[in-house]
Amino acid sequence: MSSPDSRGLLAGPWYWRKALLWYALAAVIIASDLATKAWALASFEYAQPVEVTPFFDWLLLYNYGAAFSFLSDEGGWQRWFFSGIAFVVSCMLVVWLARIPPKQRWEPVALALILGGALGNLYDRLTLGYVVDFISLHYQQHRWPSFNIADSAICVGAVMLLIDLWRNKDDEPDA
């Protein structure tokens, strides 16, 4: 099925029924992310690590910025800036997922992970004003920035896209 406007952005084949599978995967990521964040908020004191292993803690923190708390010390404008970016990227991912041919698997899984993670963190930004982080990895005194399920899904999806790009680069003839 083609879109009504075959000249514009929405031109080309649309595989909405197949895309529903990828939207469902994104919904599972969102639900998992929100459920684990609710659990963390109910279970832990802010900024008080709970040791699980010598390198892994539960550590409830609020991230007012982006990845690695980038711009977290700004005056609040970043909440709306990052929310806007997440909204626009999510809309683009919804369209991208609908346009992927049904035979492809790797790319839509990657995009669904990124979509679910982006929407999970967007929900936090819009409802709380910050993103809830609670997973902390460390080695001795060196601590990786805390993160959550949404962040993990975004990172795994991004790595999958890079691998897919690298794999497909070998399949394309030189121009």
Automatic annotation (TrEMBL):
Keywords, in A-Z order: Aspartyl protease, Cell membrane, Hydrolase, Membrane, Protease, Transmembrane, Transmembrane helix
Enzyme class: hydrolase
Primary location class: membrane
GO biological process terms held by the UniProt record: proteolysis
Coiled-coil ranges (or none): none
Subcellular location: Cell membrane
Entry's Gene Ontology molecular function annotations: aspartic-type endopeptidase activity
InterPro entries: Peptidase_A8 (IPR001872)
One Pfam entry name: Peptidase_A8
Transmembrane intervals: 20-40, 52-71, 77-98, 110-132, 144-163
Domain of life of the native organism: Bacteria
Pathway in which this enzyme or protein is active: Protein modification; lipoprotein biosynthesis (signal peptide cleavage)
Key word Cell membrane present: yes
E.C. code: 3.4.23.36
GO cellular component term, pick one: plasma membrane
Topological type in the membrane: Multi-pass membrane protein
Residues at the active site: D133, D151
Catalytic activity of the protein: Release of signal peptides from bacterial membrane prolipoproteins. Hydrolyzes -Xaa-Yaa-Zaa-|-(S,diacylglyceryl)Cys-, in which Xaa is hydrophobic (preferably Leu), and Yaa (Ala or Ser) and Zaa (Gly or Ala) have small, neutral side chains
NCBIfam families assigned: lspA
Protein purpose: This protein specifically catalyzes the removal of signal peptides from prolipoproteins.
Family statement: Belongs to the peptidase A8 family.
Protein name: Lipoprotein signal peptidase
Organism: Pseudoteredinibacter isoporae
